[in-house]
Amino acid sequence: xxxxxxxxxxxxxxxxxxxxxxxxxxxxxxxxxxxxxxxxxxxxxxxxxxxxxxxxxxxxxxxxxxxxxxxxxxxxxxxxxxxxxxxxxxxxxxxxxxxxxxxxxxxxxxxxxxxxxxxxxxxxxxxxxxxxxxxxxxxxxxxxxxxxxxxxxxxxxxxxxxxxxxxxxxxxxxxxxxxxxxxxxxxxxxxxxxxxxxxxxxxxxxxxxxxxxxxxxxxxxxxxxxxxxxxxxxxxxxxxxxxxxxxxxxxxxxxxxxxxxxxxxxxxxxxxxxxxxxxxxxxxxxxx
Length: 288
Hints:
Structural class: alpha/beta
Oligomer: single chain
Low-confidence stretches: 1-6
CATH topology: TIM Barrel
């Protein structure tokens, strides 16, 4: 993901990888054969029965696939083993719900074994019941995500790393492997645009996963300004809308405003149900 926004918009796919859906290794192989740039999978460690937190989709009942998601690191590792080109990503990973040292090792190992094909989409989380099971205060989840990311980046980019934060502490330490992609695999933060998200993307990430298409053009100006303020090249920002239901008009619009990659939504279903949709979506993959 080192190309600037001048490059042609790429097209990937995402699926709720579950124990009932098409195997992620099979899907990765089929998507790579059709020329898709990427495959993303989401993360939920568990879903508490409490429904204090309403579904993010606005539905009255939480969809079944939320309860059955595969571990994304294991699923992407299986996909990496049978592919050689397709980029493999999380869309999104709930990094605040993990031990930073262990997660840094998992991510670096996956990037190492896939020869630098990992894209790390992260989010602050929406399910307060879920995050509280991990000891995460929902009111402070953004700060905790930031700290976990900074701690992991210290381990990824330094021969000897130490970190002393509010939640993460470790003395000078070695940790290998290092990610192939340095100083980190590309980090994409998901969420609605706002001052805090824009600040975080500019500080410790490489791009943004917008929610829907509304407001993207306007937010891009603020994001580019934030990059320039930090001395970073705004042409390197990656804008990656996730879970897109595609049309030619929608994808043309995304490309016209500077979106770098559109990730199309596949059904969380069996191989027989997924492959016809994948074939239809292949028409949107840029050629040549």
